[in-house]
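Thread: "does anyone have the structure for this chain?"

Original post by V.I.:
We have the sequence but no experimental structure in hand. Need at least a predicted one for the grant figures.
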Amino acid sequence: MKRLVLAAAAALLATPAVAAGDYVSIVQEATVKAPAETVWKKVGGYCDIGTWLKTTCEITQGNDRELGAVRRIAGRIDEVIVARTPLSYTYADVDPKILYHGTVEVRPVDAKTSKIVYSLFFDQASIPADQREANKARRTAMSGGWLKTMAGIAEAP
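Reply from O.Q.:
Generated one for you, tokens below.
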């Protein structure tokens, strides 16, 4: 028994420590003068991001808007849908070095108005400490631009 306890203690001491993350959340929203279902039909496709970013996007695995679908943005960034609802999806980068997840969601406000909500969660521990605030500001500005683009698309006739 004593050997078992000592072996367990040795195993715990030999386990490498996991580095603590430096997690950041960015949540932004835009009000849209259109019903939620109409907005979602216009901006809820998984590769609609290609339009917002003015780049390419292709579904490389699975089906658009379905759990497990993988998209490739700009020929180099792969992301997978890890959760979805009728008016949202959450995606994750398949390369876990910054552990990012994003959610695109449309929320009804009333019969004629809705909100597009974009949430981004990521670990910036791999980013040099002196660059983290600038990185967060860049990501905030970038996603704010996407929201404006999505709102414009959603409100277009």
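V.I.: this helps a lot. Residues 84 and 90 are 6 Å apart (CA to CA).
O.Q.: and The beta strands are 23-32, 57-61, 70-73, 77-85, 88-93, 101-110, 113-123.
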